Structure formats: C-alpha cells, structure tokens
From TrEMBL, chains A, B, C, D:
Highest taxon, organism lineage: Bacteria
Annotated pathway: Carbohydrate degradation; glycolysis; D-glyceraldehyde 3-phosphate and glycerone phosphate from D-glucose: step 3/4
InterPro entries, per the entry: ATP_PFK, ATP_PFK_prok-type, PFKA_ATP_prok, Phosphofructokinase_CS, Phosphofructokinase_dom, PKF_sf
Keywords, alphabetical: Allosteric enzyme, ATP-binding, Cytoplasm, Glycolysis, Kinase, Magnesium, Metal-binding, Nucleotide-binding, Transferase
Purpose of the protein: Catalyzes the phosphorylation of D-fructose 6-phosphate to fructose 1,6-bisphosphate by ATP, the first committing step of glycolysis.
Organism classification: Bacteria, Bacillati, Bacillota, Clostridia, Eubacteriales
Reactions the enzyme catalyzes: beta-D-fructose 6-phosphate + ATP = beta-D-fructose 1,6-bisphosphate + ADP + H(+)
Species for this entry: Clostridium cylindrosporum DSM 605
SUPFAM superfamilies assigned: Phosphofructokinase (SSF53784)
Family classification: Belongs to the phosphofructokinase type A (PFKA) family. ATP-dependent PFK group I subfamily. Prokaryotic clade 'B1' sub-subfamily.
Record protein name field: ATP-dependent 6-phosphofructokinase
Major location category of this protein: cytoplasm
C-alpha cells in the first residue's frame, strides 16, 4: 500500500475531521502517501484530489463538519460514474480508499470494490447512530450533547411559563438521538419510530404531573415518529395546557465534536489504515463491546438496527 | 417604604433572576420586607404571594427563566382585575411594586399606579431589545450570544455541504437580535423589519460569493421580516444553490444569562429599590450611554425604537 | 426491601445527581421508600437523614456536584463510628444502602456489611476513572470534555504567542484523564504516571515541530506524573521556547454532566435498585464491554487498574 | 491612503481577529490595500509582511487569539529598532499603521509617529480592561464570561463539599475582571488592588454565612491583590473551614470571543480605517458612553484608570 485516498460522503457529522486527521497522520507515519478527495464521490469523479501533508490536518480535530467537504452524487449511482471514479483512483495512484459516511456511502464503496477491484474501508459517521454493527457512530455523542443543551435552555423558559415543550430531533428511522438525549435531558416523554406510542396516555401524564405541581413537561420526538408542531397543537387542544414546539434542525449536525467522538474517530481512523495495510478490503470499522472491530461490509450492511427496549422502558419509568 | 413586591410578567428573559436577587438582597439590607408575587399579574390577582428571604435568591443568579414564574393575564386588562390586584397589594402590605417585563407589563404597572395609587417601578426584560429608552434590555446580550453559537454550529455543516443557511431569529417589530447576532456571527446577509430588502440582490450576492469560492453563505432574518423556510425555497429556486432553514425558536429565551446581562440586571435591580426608597413612582430603569438611569414610565413608553442604520450598513459592507 | 438509603462519599463527580435521581425514581416506582443521607458517612453517623420524594430529585439531572453533599469521615474509620452508622440505619429502617463514591467509599460499605450485616451496593463515581472493574466511572466523560475545552482555549492564545502550553490535570495514580483528554484535545505530548517519559525527547520534539512551523505545542500531564510549573521551567531552559503552565484544578470536578455521564449514571442507579431488590449485597455496579454489570465488591477492589498502552502509543504517533 | 498595515502586539485578546477582519474588509471596500504584519513590532522589523485579501479573514471572526500572531520586541524599544521598522513600512508602501494592543503597544505606535512621521491608530485590546479612556477594551467581555463559567463549575463542587473557593483572576493593577466577574458570578467577596481589604472581616463573613447554612463561599481575587493559595491557607487556619484555590490562568485569554467583543471589535476596526482615511494620526479608538470615539493617543495614555467604587460596594451589599 503506497497511496491511500480519503473521502467524506453523505451528511456530515462532528468528528469526521478527527478521523481524517488520524488517518493522515498514521498513514504518513507508515510512509504511505495520503490523497484527500473533496466533495465525496462527486469530487472523486471530477478529480478534486490533492495530496495531504501533516499540516493539512493541523488544528482540525476540534472542528465540526468535514474539511474535505461532502456532497451527494447522482452520477456515482450509475456504472459509468463509478467507472470514471475508478479511473481517477488509478490516475492518482490510489490503491486503497477510506470512505467516511453512512450506509449509503458504504454501498457505494462496495460497488467500487466489486466492479473495479478497489480496496475500500468504511468508517461509520452519522449523528443518527442508525448503523447496526457498531455500538456508536461518529457524531452521535456530540449530537446528543447538543440536544441535551437545547433541552436545558428550553427547560428554563418552559418552567417559567409552565408549558409543555416538544423538541423534534433528527432520526428518520432510528430513535437513538431522541432516546438517549431524552433520558440524559430528563425528558418526561420520548417518542421514537421503533415503539408504539399512545397519545392519550401522554395527555393523561401531562395533566397528572401538572396537578402534582410540576412546572414543565418535556417531550422529545424523533422526526420519523411525528412533527413537533402537530403534537404541540394536539396537546393544547386535548389538555388545555400551553405547548410549544422547537425544531433545532441542522444545529444537531454542527458544533465542536465531543471528547468521546474525537476519541472513537481517532481510533477508527488509525484502525482503518492498519486494516488497509494488512491488505484487507470491503471492511467497515466500528466499536462493539468497547473494542474496535472491523467486519465485512456486506455483513455489516445486512444487520438490522434494533432499538434498546430496556432503555426505552427506563425512560418511561424515570418520568413517573 | 416598609414592604415591596416583585413580579415578572410577559415573556421570560435570561437575567430576570439576577434582577430578582439584587432587588431582594438590596431591599433586605435596607430593612425592607420583600414579597415575591408568582405568575405575573395573574398571580397577583390570585394572591400567589410569599415573603422572600436572602435564601430565596441563593444560587439563582446563574439560572435562566424566572423563579417567580410568568404568565399573561386577561383579567388584569379589565378594571375589575386591576382592582383585585390593588386589593391584594394592600392586604399583603405591599407599598411599592417592581415589575420585570416589557412594554405591555409597564402599561399594566402604569394603570395600577394611575387607578389605585400604587407605587410602581419597571425593569426592562426582553430578549428582543425592543424598548427605546434604554440601550439594552435584560436578556438581549444572552440571546445574541445564543444565536451566535447557533450560527457557529450551522457554519460547520453549512460549509461542509456548501449550502446557504437561513436562520430565523426572534424579533417581530425589532431587528436588533438579527442585526447584532448577524454581525457578531459573521453572517453574509441580515434581513430586518426596519429596513427594505431586495431579494434579487441577495441572490446575486450568493452567486457571486459562490463563484469566488466561498463555502457558506449565512442569512439571519428577524421573524418580523420573513419566514426562513420561504426564503430558503426562493433562494434554491432562484440560484440553484442548496439552502436550509433553521428556526432556533424558544432556545433563544433560555440558557444561563451572560455576564453582561447579570451585571445590568444586578444594577437595574439595585437601582429600582433605591428609586422606590426615594419615594418615586412610575419610573422605569435603564442604561443609557453607559449610565444607569430612571425615567418617567409614560415618557419611556412614548419613545419610538429606531434601528441603528450605521450598524445595518456596516453589516452589509463586511460581507462584501 | 422496604426502605433504602443513598449517600455520596469522597470527592464529588458530575453525574452523581443523575444517579441519585434514577435510584429515587426507580425505587419509588417499585413502592420502596427512599432515604437521603447527607454528607456521606459522617452525616450517616450524625443522623442527617431525610425521606426523598419524586420532587426531591426534580431538576437535578443537569446539575454538577451532589445534592446530598459529601464529606470525608474520620469517625467512620473506627469500629465505634461504624457501629453508630449501623444504628442510624436501623433507627431509620434502612435495609439497603447505596453508596456513590470511589474505592475508599466502597471499602467503607464493605466494612458496614461485614460487621453489621447491612446490605450495600456501590456505584463508581470519580472523575479519575481509576477503578479497574468498570470501563467508565461516573464523572470521567464530563471531566475529559472539560479538559478538552480548556485545551481549546489555551490553543488560541498559545498559537498566537507560539508558546508551549503545559496543562496539569487530575489523576494521582491514574493517567486516564490526561491520556483521553490529551488525544481528544490534539495534544502533542501526554505524560502519565503509568508510563516512563523522557524529558529530552520531549524537548527534541518541541524544537523539531517549531522548525517545521508549528505554532503551538501542547503537553498534558497527570498530576501524579509531574508539576506543570516545573515542566514549563525546564522546557524554557532546555529549548529556549516560551512555556506556560495551567492548572485547571477543581474546575475538572464541576460543570454540567455530559450526556454520557447522565446516561450511565441513570443506568447504574436503576440497576443498583434492582440488585438490592433481588436481595444481593456487597455488589458494585459498572459498565464492561457496553453492558451494565454488577460484581462482588471484594473482587472489584482487588482488580488492579492498568493503562491502555495502545492508546498511549497512538497518542504519540498522532503528534508526529 | 493607498496602503495600510495591521499588527497585533502584546498579550492576545479574544476579538482581535474580529477587528482584523473588519479593518481588512472595510479597507478593501474603499479600494485600500491591506498588509498584515506578523508577530507585532518584531515581525515588522523583520519584514514579516504579506498582502491580505478578503479570504485572509474568512472564518476568523469566531476564533480567539490573533491570526497575525503576537510577540514582544526588545529591539523595537531602541531607536535603531524603530528606524528599521519605519524602513520596512516604507519598503512595503504602508502609509498608515493600525496597532491592536494595550498601553505599551500604543506607546510604541506613538514613538513611530513622532520619530518617523508614520500615521498610526491604536485599537485597545486587552482582557484586563485597564485602559482608562475607553469603557471597554476588546477581550474583556469574553474574559469575564470565561471567569463566570469557571465560578459556575467551582460552585457545584464547592457546595457539595461546603468549602470556600478562592479564584485568582488576571489583573495586575486593575481589578475589573475580578469585580465584574465576581458580581456576575455571585461571588461572596471580591478582592481588587484598588481597594483596601480586611482579612478579618472576610473570615467573619465566612463563619457567619456558614452558620446561616450557606453551602459555599466564593472569593474572587485579582492577581495584583493577592495569591489564591495564600488566601486559602490563611482562611483555613483562621476559620477552620476548608478552602481551595483555583487559578484559571491563560484560559482567560482564550476561547471564542463573545458577541459583545465581536461587535465592538468590528466597530473599532471599521472606525480605525475611517479615521486613517480622514488623514488623522496618533488616535486611539474606543467606546465611551455607548459611542465609538477616537481621541488623541497622548491624551489617552495620560488618563488614569479608576475603579468603579459604586460597583465595588454593590458587590459587597449583595453578598450579605
């Protein structure tokens, strides 16, 4: 392995830069040349490729987003697009490609390997934590800390007005942000796509806690399980208690990465280089039971993400 | 002056607690009894009144919201409601009332003074900074710091995706949050209700800066001047550049108050007590040209808030 | 199990309140009475014990420190002291005691169990992460985030002056804070008590990176491995490069707990109640390989904490 | 005015970058060439000068420190050094020089003007706020927010242990950081160089508040008025209450600038360019009574900074 390439693809996640830094520094220490590819698969097709030195990754560990930028690529979905991409990799002498992104980005990497024999390694980066083979994806810990901070701010004003606050967080199919941030934020109710939810019992609980003198009631809902604005309106109508919706939106993707995200990103990045050097391909890196692992990309993509039901029930028990 | 009352009314603002603390401690030091009135004018009418000791305000200086809670009161808008309120003040022996809130809360205080001879003092608390007689209202500095933090987080992800970010901030009639946070956050464009705005020139600027290689373009819009979602859609349609809307909403009202807000809140609170002790009534406290002032409530309510045009033009010059 | 007691002992750690909240709410939901014991074993001896309702733990999940307060107790080290403590537990009908603290606090719990048959459960709380049987202690994640934030602030000023910054962090025998925060903060050098360290090679590295144009050089040292001030003076003398020492001290113990600490604290607290209900005693709760575990207290105290050498070497590789 | 130069000198202060950005963008908008001078007067002497475009100041408004770096210069204190500096300015065609720094930096600018006819403008940047002619210096608001955050963190742990916390903050001759942060942080005692202080009355107050059941007692001391460690030891000895010292040190210089600092920095920078364009020299920019001012450098340096005694007495009244 003389030259490797790095690209970030799909939605950005805080900690991507820490992974880029670790890949670059560990590879350089092994005498491997590192090429940064800008704007994901799109930039690869267009040849937006430049050599990275140790300075290219100075002072980036603390920055959100990705210095390599990211983009979605329609062209890469076609065999022709992937052929162009493979050509670019050959032209620039890139023998192994490390892809930072989510499920979709890994599928792209897999096609590139299958069709053109490129060695690819995936690093899971998504704030949603919706990838099943790994306990944590890069960006998730930062996102839940961001949401917890949002809940803190809303709690002040919500308690002063004795209102219900409904916070809609990211997570289309996966309620992990809502569940973890809800528990950590001390939310009274968590609504996620994986679990049934009874609106009437929420209203009953709001009224009961109000009667007990509780000043605020916080509901965290994953975007895949409902719209905050709708829920707020229904609550007001049903309970007569004021309810306000907040949608932090893209704030959740940004911000300085947490220590945890920087640490796993650093370990994932270092491991990705080692796995490539060992000659492996089509592997994805992750953390399982506190250990850094690499598993087959195919297998990884086939594992179905499930929700931690115990944690969900704990959330409800704590709000009583 | 043997006994004073404090109430917080209207929307809450970070720093209200610092003012409550200063009023309480300064009054107690002067041998004056302090009564806390909960839930604004509504609570006053209902007799939700309790004596405050120095412990009642321990460890609250750093907390957002208001420990006295706040509420809007329809009943207080009627002469009968205000009579009930005046009776409560008499029953509890409250000779002077300090009202923390905005314009509307001051109007209420004025009616109470005019109709029932109650001595009232107003302290300006609103994140919007929409009160003309004072350079700063309590809560404004915290709110702009919160928005600046939001801009920081959006900048990361916005730059990674090379998108336009539109952030809709509070301010129905007054663009101060948008203007100050926009400049401090390094926004490329600020849209406020007080100034005309040309959509085409925004689009031209987005395209020009894109061509120059700029990775992100941040627009801050006051809620009174447009909806972020609409603007995002129009920008995408007109320029072809991806645009994303974020509405931080009630987050802007919450959070730990900034040092500046705690300081002016402390000074305003201390001054309010002194002004009451001097026997004055119907005065509002403020800060003008770095000096703490008290002026006639009537006069204060008649001054029209204007925007700082130089600052607005500076915002535009800096984005070039 | 009709009544349980909770006490916090030794140094405080962010997240203790989240654990107290979970214990209280989960126990109440099971119909168990909860008694809060103030000021650790000292308060237990003195009978500083009060019943806790669900309101006692409202709005504490986000607060650092411990609402039960903590103290060291000389008297509890004597058999007479422990007899008094056991009497108090009997008087107040406390059948099971949950102790939040570190090694020393667990030893106390064990003696109480052995000598007086009290059922005890330990929950590991210490920012140092110096307890071997668990992957993480409550407070550690918050502490490393605090140190990472300190490093961020120092980086700004350090780079502007092109100085070396030496940050002395907590950890007398255990370098985990230094190691994790050092990597996450992008430090160039980490000095911990568990590993030998060559001063000359540090100086060489400072000079080499200076020559390469690097603006700052950050050293994180665990208090057990050296004094920041001494190291700064030696570096200046040896390299001629300006060096500044910073000792964040007790800041590391404070602050709002991170999402991660709140989550494990919540899980540990809930599990501690369940383990007590199952009739077990002398168990400590922890997290191992992502699973919440309970193990024998004796066994737990006998496991020796070791440093993650791979992580230490990774830290050095990344700084090249 | 065809070409201007910018340099940052002395200690760095958060907000310097916002001023550099404003100077650059406003000057470029007026068709003036901008030269950045690195490492203060030292870099000027050495010709470390480069042309700045609008991109040179992209994404720096939110960063602490100074992108131009700073250094102290012995050589510039000599007439020969200043002659070299003046030559460099001529060689690079710099007609007007904007100096960001404190008193010492302004004296240097004055000598350059007097001896070599260079047009100079000063912008006050120092976290200490020790410059008399301006109400605020750039960096002060950020520093007090940083100290307030430190106090918050210490309060948690201090209250849990019922200890006295002594925080030593920057300010050799000027107690403004201690005074403002002390009030905003709710400190019980503020010790500053400008005011006499009785140690016995501090001890009496500690004991009195302890008896009243107060959990913590926070003392903020300016470095020019005492060492935190000494004070802690004396308190323990005299009162028997545990006391802990914390010295945040250079943390106070770093961090993201606050909104307020970014705003005044932006205004100061824009005004500095305008003043130069008007042909003025030896002026310093500031804010007085909420207005941006420029006054004669000589006069500015002769005004003696005094402490706000009312504020000092308010601090004491609030702690009762």
């Amino acid at each position: 392995m003389n030259t490797i390439g790095i690209l970030t693809s799909g939605g950005d996640a805080p900690g991507m830069n820490a992974a880029i830094r670790a890949i670059t520094r560990v590879a350089l220490a092994k005498g491997i040349k590192v090429m940064g590819i800008q704007r994901g698969y799109n930039g690869l097709i267009n040849g937006e490729i430049f050599e990275m030195g140790r300075d290219s990754v100075s002072d980036i560990i603390q920055r959100g987003g990705t210095v390599l930028k990211t983009a979605r690529s329609e062209e890469f979905r076609t065999p022709e697009g992937r052929e162009k991409a493979a050509n670019m990799l050959r032209i620039f002498g890139i023998e192994g490609l490390i892809v930072l992104g989510g499920d979709g980005s890994f599928s792209g990497a897999q096609l590139l390997s299958n069709e053109h024999g490129i060695k690819t390694i995936g690093i899971p980066c998504t704030i949603d934590n919706d990838i099943a083979y790994t306990d944590f994806t890069i960006g998730f810990d930062t996102a839940i800390n961001t949401v917890v901070e949002v809940i803190n701010k809303l709690r002040d004003t919500s308690a002063s007005h004795e209102r219900v606050s409904i916070i809609e967080v990211m997570g289309r199919r996966c309620g992990d942000i809502a569940l973890h941030a809800g528990i950590a934020g001390g939310a009274e109710c968590v609504i996620i796509p994986e679990m049934n939810f009874e609106f009437d019992s929420l209203c009953r609980s709001i009224i009961e806690t109000k009667v007990l003198g509780k000043l605020h009631y916080i509901v965290v809902v994953a975007e895949g399980a409902g719209k905050a604005q709708d829920i707020a309106e229904r609550i007001e109508k049903c309970t007569g208690v004021q309810a306000r919706a907040t949608v932090p939106g893209h704030i959740q993707r940004g911000g300085m990465p947490s220590a945890f995200d920087r640490l796993i990103a650093t370990k994932f990045g270092a491991t990705a280089v080692e796995v490539l050097v060992e000659g492996k391909s089509q592997r994805v890196i992750g953390i399982k039971d506190s250990k850094i692992i690499d598993i087959d990309m195919n297998e990884a993509l086939s594992i179905k993400k499930t929700v931690d039901k115990d944690l969900y029930h704990l959330a409800n028990n704590l709000s009583i």
